[in-house]
Amino acid sequence: MKNEGIIPGFHGIMDLDVRNMDPRYIKQAIEQHENDIKIYNAEQAKLKPKHRYENTILRINKQREYIQTKEKEYYERIEKESLERNKQYNSWKKNNFIKLFI
Predict the structure, then answer these.
(1) Are residues 10 and 37 in contact, defined by beta-carbon separation less than 8 angstroms?
(2) Which stretch of DSSP H or E encloses residue 16?
(3) Under 8 Å CB-to-CB from 17, ≥6 apart: which residues?
(4) Are 12 and 53 in contact (CB under 8 A)?
(5) How many domains does one find in the chain?
(6) pTM for this one?
(7) CA end-to-end distance (rounded Å), the chain
(8) How many of the other CB atoms lie within 10 Å of CB of 63?
(9) CA 18 to CA 29: how far, in whole Å?
């Protein structure tokens, strides 16, 4: 397992890495981590929906991903069109250059 020793976090709480932790503190750290997640969920439930993490940070991340995919598609289309224009130009230039000497 590649993530052995890493306890997953939740939304605004980062993962807990216990790989380099003293073994006698691991159980306590995991319990505290789980407690922090419960407290976080309770605090989020108290907030107005528009102020909650999933409606702010996660929404912005989704928007950013959407914009990045659209930009990537746009630049790929531009590059494809540019290559096509270059091919047409080179073909035209080659044909007209030959006609000059015939």
Answers:
(1) yes
(2) strand 16-17
(3) 5, 6, 7
(4) yes
(5) 2
(6) 0.57
(7) 71
(8) 10
(9) 8
Cβ atoms of 16 and 9 closer than 8 Å: yes
Q: Are residues 72 and 57 in the same domain?
A: yes
In Å, how far from its chain's centre is CA 99? Answer: 53
Q: Which of 9, 13, 6 is nearest to 43 (CA)?
A: 13
CB contact at 8 A, 18 and 30:
yes
Residue at 2: amino acid letter: K
pLDDT tens track, the chain, 102 positions: 467 888 888 887 899 999 989 999 999 999 999 999 999 999 989 989 888 888 888 889 999 999 999 999 999 999 999 999 999 888 887 777 666 555
Q: 76 with 54, same domain?
A: yes
User: Which residue range is the domain that position 95 belongs to?
Assistant: 49-102
Instruction: Say whether both 40 and 72 belong to one domain.
Output: no
**Residue listed under structure tokens 């080179």:** 90
